[in-house]
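hey can u check if this looks right to u? its 562 residues, i copy pasted from the old doc so theres a chance i mangled smth
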Amino acid sequence: MNNTREVHQLCHRILDADGNMVAAFDLSAVDVHSTLASAFLRAHAAEFGHTSIESQKQAHRAIRKLILCLQEHALHNRVPLPISIAQIFHDWIKSSGLNESTAQSHQNIVVAVLRWCARNLPGTVHPKASMLAPSFRRPKPTQMRRLEESEVRSLLSACYEEIEATEMRLARGRMCFSENAVSDGELLELRKTVIDLLRAGKGQLPNQKVVNRSGLALARRVSEQGGLRQIVSSIYITIEDIVPFYLAVLMQTGGNPMAIRSMKLDCLSGHPLRDDLECLTWEKPRANREQRVDFPAGKEWSAPNLIRRLVAMNSDLRANALARDRESVFLARNFLSSVARVPSVQSLHNYLALFLKKFGLQDFDFKHLRATSAWAHYWKTGAHDVVRRRLNHANVRTTTLYTLTDEIAPEHYKIISKFQGELVTKARGEDAQRESTCLDREKLIAHAKTVFGFECRDPFGGLDGTTAKGSRCLNFTRCSTCPGAIVPLDDVSVIARLLATQASLEEARVDANRRGWSKRYRSLYADTLRIISETILPGVSPEVLTAAKAAMGRLPPIPKPE
């Protein structure tokens, strides 16, 4: 990012390599003491100048909130700011009606700005001012909207339909530049109109004002072709055309919308070890790490191939693009300007709304596609580490924010119930099948026995969703909610151990209530006791229960959970 900061009186501007303004942070017209305005802008540059443009804009919005607070407290022309300024802002932002998460974000920025001013610009803030302010209680994360599987299919189908329509439209429109246009009356007229437009615009398609005063009945001819917007969209790929490509790539990669929007031309590469795969990589500045997803090579609708098709359509725009966007994948022509650029976040949202309305799809935000991808991969694999690698997270705890473990637990219970049902059916089949079934089951459960009596299909398979595949699972308190757990309901030894576990956990519950560690008990063991008592044992036959109770005394003692 080769942006520079241009400093004017109470106004800082961010310019790209071509000198085009990317953002402006202007306090020149705000009713606040000039010493404070200048100090706030300097603090903004020092504390946030190295961050992304979006982050700098967010910081500037927080500074404007601080100024509004000062105005309402009649402090906007007072220098230095009072000793309790941090507390004053906290009380003001608390009463503003913002949700607590947003209020905390604004407060963090404002305190950073005030602290920088106090340290570097004596006289702007009281020298003994306290920069401590109470924290806002952030609400518990709620589940982000996830698209259902049918919604995803409908969305991708709409994207692919729109992409094909765009390719066909551009292919026909660009034929007006070929010699074949002379044999097609419509194309020949379009060709003549475009040539005159390029002459009037000195090599570029001009705006409507230029068309109206150009003569040659050009305005009428443009109108007959459907208008200037129609002519532009028949030759160049526009922001509206970018949306289906952007949606499809987001859905397939599960990438962060802001990072995907900035994807560069060098994003495609071959897999270092396998010829049947190719890699799609991009930068995520906030995480300061490269993001990568592998795809099967040669697939028509894979994300890498969609990017190739898009780049083929917008390659003629690059010579006239902003320097900062010249190497970007999602480059488009604006109807109001001949300069090509990556669509703004707001433009993408505006055209997303039109896209959803056109195809009758339910409303969603771009960020919901990342949550949808996370949940889809978790549902298929049952492993958080798989989802972590897909989302390119450094820590699995970040991944769980997209899957929300509170909602995962009920899904685990469903998986266990279904698996038990299958075992019960097999174990109670015809005599001819019983021997084969038992042999298969013995092979299946010979791998491992767990401390609470469950059998484990594969302790090295990462089936609990948190242990890395290949590492031995130590998550023994969650066997009851693991899809790898096996419970043969007609096996006396297994049921005997589960009965012993039930007795031990019931004793531990009494002990926990008496000694004050009931919260820890509920966190670690309550689910296991409930599932054994309410889900597993009611399905065991009286004969097996009787035999299992008699066998309990011959088992090694269950270690008490402490």
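The first helix runs from residue 34 to 48.
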